[in-house]
Amino acid sequence: MELRWTDEERAFRKEVRDFIDRELPKETRERMIRGKSPTKEMVVEWQRKLNKRGWAVPDWPVEHGGPGWTPAQRYIFREELMQAPAPQPLAFNTNMCGPVIIAFGTEEQKKRFLPRMANLDDWWCQGFSEPGAGSDLAGLKCRAVRQGDHYVVNGQKTWTTLAQYADWIFLLVRTDPNAKKQEGISFLLCDMKSPGITVRPIITIEGGHEVNEVFFDDVKVPVENLVGQENRGWDCAKFLLGNERFGQARVGASRERIRRLKAIARETMLDGRPLAEDPTFRQSVAEIEVELQALEMTVMRVIANETKRKGSNKPDPATSVLKIKGTEIQQNVSELLMKAAGPYAWVDGDPEAEGSNQWDVAPDWAYGLAGTYFNWRKQSIYGGSNEIQRNIMAKAFLGL
Question: For the segment 36-46, what is each residue's pLDDT rounded down to a tens digit?
Answer without folding.
Answer: 889 999 999 99
